[in-house]
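Trying the structure run again after the queue cleared.
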Amino acid sequence: MDKLSKNKSMLVGICLLVVLLSFALFANYVLHLPNNTFFILSRFLLWATLAIMILYSIKIEKQDFFLYKEKKYTFWKVIGIVSLLLVFLIIGNIGIYHLSTKIGLKTESISTSYFSTLLKNNILIYFCITITAGIVEELLLRGYLQTRLEKLLKSSLGGILCSSLIFAILHIGYGIFLQIIVPFWIGLVFAMFYYKFKNIKILIITHIVWDCFALLKYIM
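Done. Tokens:
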């Protein structure tokens, strides 16, 4: 496949990914299913999206799903990097929430009641959310989307910023502007890490740990 055809196939792949993710996350605005029912459906759709994009990269793009060669790190270095990433996320979140309070932005979202109802005393759903988000979102948003954007835009910074913005917009369903800013920060940290260290497994671990702590209050 020549360069122009490959670029076209990657652009179509990016559009396909955004459409599939949007449907998986926002289809209930049309379907109006009970929360528990749509939750099960959305998890299935997210995993199906991952499978489709893996097949698309191999069969249509004629290239590996991962454009970065995965770097290996020692166990203790992985622990150190995960810890450092979590510190960056915590500091950023504290700063964003503090600033939001100062300027009067709404900090309570519809996700509070949603997760309270969905997760109350339900450890299975809790782990389903955190594991699915950690694996699927990192593979798709960083592993697939970011690297294709970098190629198409011919800019690492462009790929980092655009993939972070798309990651943020996909959280718009929470209903408040703050829940776009925070995911943008998280996406930015993860995207910059992936560009520099090129290890998706560390991001998956960090994302799962982060979500586990973020959602823990809803299951207590």
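The two ends are 53 Å apart (CA to CA). Worth checking whether this holds up in the mutant runs.
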